[in-house]
Every structure is written in structure tokens, then in C-alpha cells.
């Protein structure tokens, strides 16, 4: 489609949702403004609720970036969990 921004692959395997992104504010009864990153500056930040999906985060899956030590040659050590 002309003028539509696509994320990732084209066709059947393209992602249906991207994110998660924080809600900046509610606009009316059926729209929300999202806090989008700079890379998505060309995307209008207001979405109808039918275009959004609730994200229920699992705190056990959050990886703190301070725990990853990247070496000068951009390699890292894998440690079994």
C-alpha cells in the first residue's frame, strides 16, 4: 500500500504489533497518544483503541542492561542461568 510504513518483513510473516510503548494521554473515549521513540518520528502518535493491544509484562523476563558487559571487540561472555 502506498504511504504505509511497514515494520520488519513483508507479507504473512510481518509483525502485527510493535512495541510496547507507554501511553502519554487518553484522547477522547477511543484514542490514545503513545510515547514513540525518535526512530518512529514519521508515525502519527495517536491510535484508535482497536489498533492497540494490552501488554502484560513479565518482570522475570526483564534483563538489566548493566548486567551485560560488552568488550571492545563487541563480544560478550554467555553465562548459564
Keywords:
single chain, 81 residues, mainly beta, 3-stranded antiparallel sheet
Would you tell me the structural class of the helices and strands? Answer: mainly beta
Strand segment count: 3
| Percent range for β-strand residues | 5-15%
* Poorly predicted spans: none
Q: What is the number of helical segments per DSSP (H or I, 4+ residues)?
A: 0
Strand order of the largest sheet: 1-2-3
Characterise this structure:
0% of the residues lie in helices and 15% in strands. A hairpin with a 3-residue loop joins strand 1 and strand 2. The radius of gyration is 17 Å and the shape is elongated. It has one domain. With 81 residues, it is an all-beta fold. The N and C termini lie far apart (45 Å). Strands 1-2-3 form a three-stranded antiparallel β-sheet, with no helix packed on it.
How is the topology of this model organized?
Elements: E1 23-27, E2 31-34, E3 46-48
Antiparallel strand pairs: 1-2, 2-3
Condensed summary:
Residues 5-55 form the Tf2-1-like SH3-like domain. By secondary structure, this protein is an all-beta fold.
